[in-house]
Amino acid sequence: MKQSEIKDLSAAQLQEKLSLSKKTYADLKMAHAISPIENPLQIRSARRVVARLATELTKRELQ
Q1: How many angstroms from the chain centroid is the CA of residue 57?
Q2: Which residue ranges make up each domain of the chain?
Q3: How many Cα neighbours within 13 Å face the side chain of 32?
Q4: Measured between alpha carbons, how far is residue 22 from residues 19, 45, 51, 62 in Å?
Q5: What is the C-alpha separation between 10 and 57, in angstroms, rounded?
Q6: How far, in Å, are 20, 21, 33, 46, 63 from residue 1 at the CA level?
Q7: What is the pTM of this model?
Q8: 40 contacts: CB under 8 Å, gap ≥ 6
Q9: Distance from CA of residue 19 to its chain's centroid?
Q10: How far is residue 1's CA from residue 16's CA, in Å, rounded to a whole number?
Q11: Rounded Cα gap, residues 29 and 42, in angstroms
């Protein structure tokens, strides 16, 4: 998910996407711990999406 897409979302949508992304990230980590997943770069990508969403949410709260 790109930063420009994230900026267009409302606060409620950000919160929803953040919880969904956190679950996806946790699922990827668990699957990789059990048996190596085909593309481990998905874990990095998911972690960065979570960080982008959390950063935008925090930025909006501070304004």
Answers
A1: 12
A2: 3-62
A3: 13
A4: 5, 12, 10, 22
A5: 9
A6: 13, 10, 25, 9, 23
A7: 0.91
A8: 32
A9: 8
A10: 14
A11: 10
State both tokens at 16.
């929803």
The pair of structure tokens assigned to 34 is: 């059990």
Reduced 3-state DSSP string for 9-50: CCHHHHHHHHHHHHHHHHHHHHHHHHCCCCCCHHHHHHHHHH
The C-alpha atoms of residue 49 and residue 9 are separated, in whole angstroms, by: 14
In the numeric block, which tokens belong to residue 60? 């909006």
pLDDT in tens, 19-51: 999 999 999 999 999 999 999 999 999 999 999
